[in-house]
Design a protein that fits this description.
This protein has 293 residues and is an alpha/beta fold. The chain has two domains: 150 residues, Rossmann fold; 106 residues, Rossmann fold (3-Layer(aba) Sandwich), CATH 3.40.50.1980. Helix content is 46%, strand content 12%. It is built from ten helices and eight strands. The longest helix is centred in the middle third of the chain and has 26 residues. The protein is globular, with a radius of gyration of 23 Å. The N and C termini lie far apart (92 Å).
């Protein structure tokens, strides 16, 4: 009888001090879809990721929906990245859930100036409103390694029980990112030093990584005037650019006008695609196919 009583007391003590198992994944928000890819790769089944800017929407002008604000109240972490809508909304998002930590995933990354059209190689200083810096860091595999470390630290801090899982997942993620970087370096080597033209200057970090020169059609969302358009036509012909790249979040009209006048094509590249690694492979293939003979 005494032995049974002792066993019951021991079990009660152990139960009292046991850390309860987390019944639900850690609820987190990210600003854009590529961040979802990163957080899920590192967090695995221990995280449930919601995306603020949905497919097709622009992170330059997006305004959160009421439903998202309700979901945000249950989130433990918000992973920011420096896109323009955050300038207007981050403080309000934080006020909606004061227990939610906001993580700047771009912290520790050397940021580049947002390029102006036709002058990325020399002047290149047309600034974004937020900090005057290009937010598209997720398009550089080398910068993504830093983003991944920031994500890892935040997940470990919010969920110490999952630390071993998060660290192992990050090691696997980092190996994959390095392998992708090496693959892209090899594939894009023939284009080193060459130019490609985009409507909106999203691809500056990618271009920097692989020795390319990004030329942009628009400046701060403004389409080129007649004189600027003529200069762009000359540039497309001089640089032997066969394709002008557009993205789904912006109008194709100016790019199509320029392409027709210069005898070039128009092709879509999405800097906000969720399948981040395969998307960068598609970008490399598109660039390789876009040069005139």
């Amino acid at each position: 009888m005494k032995r049974n009583l002792f066993v019951l007391i021991v079990m009660a003590v152990l139960t009292a001090f046991a850390v309860p198992a987390r019944s639900e994944p850690l609820a987190v928000f990210v600003s854009v879809l590529p961040q979802k890819f990163f957080v899920e790769a590192i967090g695995g089944e221990r995280v449930a990721v919601s995306v603020m800017v949905p497919p097709g929407a622009s992170p330059a002008t997006y305004e959160p929906r009421p439903q998202q604000m309700g979901e945000l109240a249950r989130a433990r972490l918000y992973f920011a990245v420096g896109v323009p809508f955050e300038e207007a909304w981050l403080d309000r998002l934080g006020a909606a859930n004061r227990s939610m930590a906001i993580i700047a995933t771009e912290e520790g990354i050397e940021r580049r100036a947002m390029a102006s059209h036709r002058h990325d190689h020399d002047q290149g200083h047309e600034m974004t409103k937020r900090s005057g810096l290009d937010p598209h860091v997720w398009l550089s595999p080398r910068a993504v390694l830093t983003q991944g470390r920031n994500i890892l630290r935040a997940l470990v801090s919010a969920d110490p029980e999952g630390a071993a899982t998060y660290r192992e997942n990050y090691r696997r993620f980092a190996r994959d990112v390095v392998a992708l970087d090496l693959e892209l370096m090899e594939r894009l080597r023939p284009l080193e030093g060459s130019s490609f033209m985009v409507f909106h200057p999203s691809w500056g970090y990618f271009a920097d990584d692989y020795g390319l020169i990004q030329r942009a059609v628009e400046v701060e969302g403004k389409e080129p005037k007649a004189g600027e358009l003529a200069a762009l036509i000359d540039e497309v012909r001089r640089e032997k650019i066969a394709v002008i790249f557009v993205q789904p979040q912006f109008s194709r009209k100016a790019a199509e006008t320029l392409a027709r006048a210069a005898g070039a094509g128009v092709e879509t590249l999405d800097p906000l695609a969720e399948d981040w690694d395969e998307n960068l492979r598609r970008v490399a293939e598109a660039l390789l196919s876009s040069r005139r003979p």
